[in-house]
Design goal:
This protein is mostly helical. The chain has 35 helices and no strands.
Length: 592
């Protein structure tokens, strides 16, 4: 179907206003007798009746040039020959496709009223959404006025619901809210269903502040309060760490005549625990019990997780016992929180015990549980146990993911087992699992530690080709590896590459190269690099000057070695360093 055409506001208003008012009033309070014998309406009606047997183009060819929007509006509002709604809609669509005919916005509004009165809401929505798309944002006031003005023979409040939905589906949310306010202003029936639809869309798109404000507004005009909607708002606010706002939403529940559910409490408790406010979380637990709302497994899991993240493992274990003694069966989240807490505290052995207890209670671990424990085992160097766990998770139907493999690579690299780390990298590539920043950095670190700097540099290139930008620390590791092997030239090459890639190397990177120069006895180049640092705004630290002093000590006269050595650790700025070195060089010249 060709897109309908709308008269723009300017074109529409450019028509004689008095003429429009005259015509508008004629169909606003119609005299059915005066229009039943209108020859144009009769001809149109007859043409519609025989369509599609006889094409409308041929039936209406004679009157089409004289046909106006006002004729169409009269036809819709009066429908003198009782045409069926589908046939009238088909005629409307056909007319909108005619090149010489322009439908006014009032034509659309009249048709929408007709469709709503005949329960054809989907078609009404389609027409209004087209109007909205043409009018664009901030058009609610003008479109609403046109819809209101077009209320004639057909009186259906659903038209305002359809209008709100059209704006909502077009993502013109401020216009949809404006429609609601205009309905309220004109004392029309509030379209509660559309209000709920708009609220849900705002929440789904994470527009929480507008959703919250709108919800309060519709509640104030009689929208039935729903504790689930309050819970949804709290959940989203908690995820954004807006705990003050979440608390206000919670406090609003009883004010609206509702009783908070265990989900309401759990949502807020979880939010407080994740933001580190355990005191408030436990206060709410006490409050809910005083109100005869008993904590469930999710309540305890949230509190246990909060305690574990704060390192309060003894308290977490006590709460776990309280939970179990109260007849509640811990779920996988509860166990995983405890496992993670003990592993983060370096007690992977306790993590393994909790995992075994979990199995005994028949609680099935998920991928997060396995990854948590594997990570804990790798951090303390228990690679053999970690591998056994990988085998077990595979047997249980879980596929190791990027986190699993990256954890193992990091663990092997730290233990100096590069062969196993590279083997896992190979497995990842074969399975189509992309390496991330952590995996590449771990490999580069391990290769540098083992003196495999050429392989480390190749891995650095591979990292960049994968679209992951190495950070300053990663570059510095490779530079240090080359300088340690005496290849300061390669260190400078990587330093220049860092600058070209938009990095701003810091004092640590420069200290690495300075140390390499000093070890090679290139003190003139070292002092030049110091000047370059200062010119670039890189502030040397005490390590910088002491590296340089160590270099001068080792490359100077033996009898002056002890004097310079005694100054090490005391030199913390450029002036002190240059003064000491100038004094040292002056004495050298005197001795010659």
């Amino acid at each position: 179907m060709a897109l309908p055409k709308i008269l723009t506001t300017s074109n529409f208003l450019s028509q004689p206003r008095c003429g429009f008012l005259r015509i508008f009033s004629s169909w606003m309070t119609p005299s059915r007798t005066s229009h039943c014998h209108d020859p144009i309406l009769t001809t149109i009606s007859d043409a519609i009746k025989v369509f599609p047997t006889t094409p409308l183009d041929s039936s209406l060819k004679r009157i089409l040039p004289s046909l106006t929007s006002n004729h169409l509006i009269d036809l819709i509002n009066l429908n003198p020959y009782a045409l069926s709604p589908p046939s009238l809609l088909s005629f409307f669509k056909w007319l909108s496709s005619q090149n010489h005919f322009r439908l006014s916005i009032h034509s659309y509004c009249a048709m929408v009223h007709f469709l709503c009165a005949n329960k054809m809401l989907a078609d009404a929505h389609s027409l209004l959404q087209f109007v909205v798309s043409r009018k664009g944002k901030n058009s609610a006031s003008s479109v609403f006025a046109s819809v209101l003005e077009a209320r004639g023979t057909y009186q259906s409040n659903s038209v305002f619901s359809v209008l709100m939905d059209a704006y909502t589906d077009s993502a013109f949310f401020s216009d949809a809210i404006q429609c609601f306010r205009l309905v309220r202003k004109h004392n029309l029936q509030i379209p509660f269903h559309s209000c709920g639809y708009l609220f849900d869309r705002l929440v789904k798109l994470n527009l929480i502040d507008p959703a919250r404000a709108f919800y309060v507004e519709i509640l104030d005009c009689g929208y039935p309060p729903d504790v689930c909607k309050f819970n949804v708002l709290m959940n989203r606010l908690c995820k954004e760490h807006k705990m003050n706002d979440a608390q206000k939403v919670f406090d609003e529940i009883p004010k609206r005549g509702l009783r908070p559910t265990v989900v309401s409490f759990n949502t807020l408790i979880n939010g407080y625990c994740k933001t580190g406010n355990l005191e408030e979380g436990f206060r709410l637990k006490t409050f809910m019990m005083e109100n005869k709302i008993f904590p469930d497994v999710y309540t305890y899991s949230a509190l246990i997780n909060g305690l574990c993240k704060e390192g309060l493992l003894d308290d977490a274990d006590k709460l776990f016992m309280e939970m179990s003694e109260g007849g509640l069966v811990p779920n996988d989240v509860t166990f995983t929180s405890l496992i993670n807490g003990h592993c983060a505290n370096g007690r992977a052995d306790l993590g393994v015990e909790i995992y075994q207890q979990m199995s005994r209670k028949g609680v099935k671990p998920d991928l997060i549980t396995f990854n948590t424990l594997i990570n804990g085992l790798c951090k303390v160097g228990y690679l053999s146990e970690a591998n056994k766990l990988v085998v077990e998770m595979t047997q249980r139907g879980f596929k190791p993911d990027k986190f699993t493999y990256t954890t193992l690579i990091d663990g092997y690299c730290k233990e100096g087992d590069l062969g196993s780390a590279l083997e896992i990298k190979k497995v990842m590539v074969e399975k189509g699992i992309e390496l991330d920043n952590v995996a590449f950095t771990a490999l580069i670190s391990g290769l540098c530690r083992e003196g495999e700097v050429s392989d480390a540099e190749r891995t650095l290139r591979e990292m960049a080709e994968a679209g992951i930008k190495p950070d300053d620390a990663t570059y510095t590791m490779v530079i240090h590896g080359f300088c340690k092997k005496g290849d300061v030239k390669m260190g400078f090459k990587l330093l220049d590459e860092m600058r070209r890639d938009g990095h701003f190397p810091g004092v640590v990177t420069y200290n690495v190269i300075l140390n390499g120069l000093c070890k090679k006895g290139q003190m003139k180049n070292a002092d030049m690099l110091l000047d370059a640092m200062l010119n670039l705004g890189v502030v040397p630290d005490d390590i910088t000057y002491n590296i340089l002093l160590e270099g001068h000590c080792k490359n100077g006269k033996r009898e002056d070695f002890d004097k310079l050595r005694s100054e090490k650790g005391l030199v913390q700025d450029y002036a002190s360093y240059t003064s000491l070195i100038q004094d040292f060089r002056s004495k050298e010249r005197e001795k010659r």
